[in-house]
Amino acid sequence: MGLSDRIETAISRALAEAGGGPRRLTSALDYAVTPGGARIRPTILLSVARACGDDRPEVSNAAAAALEFIHCASLVHDDLPAFDDADYRRGKPSVHVAFSEPLAVLTGDSLIVLAFETLARAASDTPDRACALTLTLARQTGTPGGICAGQAWESEPRIDLSAYHRAKTGALFVAATRMGAIAAGQEPDPWDELGARIGEAFQVADDLRDAVCSSDELGKPAGQDDLHARPSAVAEFGVTGAVRHLDDILAGAIASIPSCPGEAELAGMVRAYADRIVPQAARRTVPGE
Amino acid sequence: MGLSDRIETAISRALAEAGGGPRRLTSALDYAVTPGGARIRPTILLSVARACGDDRPEVSNAAAAALEFIHCASLVHDDLPAFDDADYRRGKPSVHVAFSEPLAVLTGDSLIVLAFETLARAASDTPDRACALTLTLARQTGTPGGICAGQAWESEPRIDLSAYHRAKTGALFVAATRMGAIAAGQEPDPWDELGARIGEAFQVADDLRDAVCSSDELGKPAGQDDLHARPSAVAEFGVTGAVRHLDDILAGAIASIPSCPGEAELAGMVRAYADRIVPQAARRTVPGE
């Protein structure tokens, strides 16, 4: 089974376990999670698990679903009127628009809970891995270093910009690489750097898209960083410099991959990821490309 | 150390682990959790753990803190403008009033995450208990049968009233008794009925308070069930009937306590709890009391 099928199957199974309650909440959970976006985080998780031998695929599948549930929960809550007040997500009305604001809050809450439930359920015969997975996912989700903290930096009078990006964008990528290793019974620490660098690359790619893509291409207003004078890699290095910076980060990511049976395949995955996340319009501005 | 000290110490330790991030979120977490209310759920949890031998107090303490974090998270989210729009809680401004709506959403989210993190961290040398605790807490928190589902019933066109009360009020009491047993290494299923009946009693007591206490005594508007023609034990049985019904439920709760070393002490705790939750004004209306 390919990674994508493994992810969708694990997600469907976990969602089925959450069914049978109040119908609108059940529908809202399904709506928030499927059809998905690129499933980048669970794909990285399973790629790392595979590179590490993946001796318990039912554990890595559950970890992949759990990580995606946390990501989807964060999107649902971030779209709320109190945060981004975003009416659309993935080409359809956001959860609070399609259902209601109370149901959007409860959908996010339920998805966070379902993530930890999925880990505990799947890992019942390897409880040590389940505990380690729970601890890692919780740290990268909550506070002080997870995505909740990342979002909360926006409510501070003074932002620690590096902590902000590390927590808001980087945390779930670090969760992805660490959880892939843990699910396969390996030590997670050597995998931190790969996750952190992929997260950094993702942030730079996001800055590039905001600068060089049209609003139509993005499906949301473009040029926001420039308009609001936000710090961004493009503001710091220019488009050409930002593309080179991103390439450097990904080269560092590949160099950081710990020695393991699936090392070469994983490096190939990171390279393919790089090609996908850099907007073509940005590559075209770089001399010699 | 008394139960109350054990609970407050466990809560403080877990909160300290969540410190060091964005300061306003850290403050909001602390504000939402301390000073607490009666800490009824963690007290029941530790009482059951003690009745079962409590051979791993660090595990039952962590479970007690985790359960209280989920309860506090639910209060913070329930108070939001999209739900009850409550400006006050426990005699002080609610979290979204004192901080902001974004921080209230993130406080609830972070507390849910911290609950599972606390379980995983404390039970690292008994990972099987940690997994069982995680599974029980998740089921009683999420959907289909947990407090998220309970709240979501209010968004349904037709309410299943028994599922609603069981999920909204009962779920965390069932979590309390089950988690107390699991933390002490015992089978949780025999403890379900005690939790369910205490939850039922709590609901009836709440109905009684709404009917017989003044708004000043409640710290919120009284007489709401009657005003909104809500189904309640008082509407069904009258005040005297509701007090007798509550006494019957608690007698059933005591009778359901599984045979264990601390059975008598636990029965005494439930009796004391009964005296505390029934408003004096309601007892005075019952002939012969």
Automatic annotation (TrEMBL), chains A, B:
Keywords, ordered alphabetically: Carotenoid biosynthesis, Chlorophyll biosynthesis, Isoprene biosynthesis, Magnesium, Metal-binding, Photosynthesis, Transferase
Pathway involvement of the protein, from the record: Isoprenoid biosynthesis; geranylgeranyl diphosphate biosynthesis; geranylgeranyl diphosphate from farnesyl diphosphate and isopentenyl diphosphate: step 1/1
Domain of life, per lineage: Bacteria
PROSITE patterns: POLYPRENYL_SYNTHASE_1, POLYPRENYL_SYNTHASE_2
Recorded GO MF terms: geranylgeranyl diphosphate synthase activity; metal ion binding
Keyword Kinase: no
Keyword ATP-binding among record annotations: no
Cofactor(s), names only, from the UniProt record: Mg(2+)
Gene3D superfamilies per the UniProt record, alphabetical: Farnesyl Diphosphate Synthase
CDD domains documented for this protein: Trans_IPPS_HT (cd00685)
Annotated function: Catalyzes the condensation of farnesyl diphosphate (FPP) and isopentenyl diphosphate (IPP) to yield geranylgeranyl diphosphate (GGPP) needed for biosynthesis of carotenoids and diterpenes.
Recorded family membership: Belongs to the FPP/GGPP synthase family.
Cross-referenced PANTHER family: FARNESYL DIPHOSPHATE SYNTHASE
Protein name: Geranylgeranyl diphosphate synthase
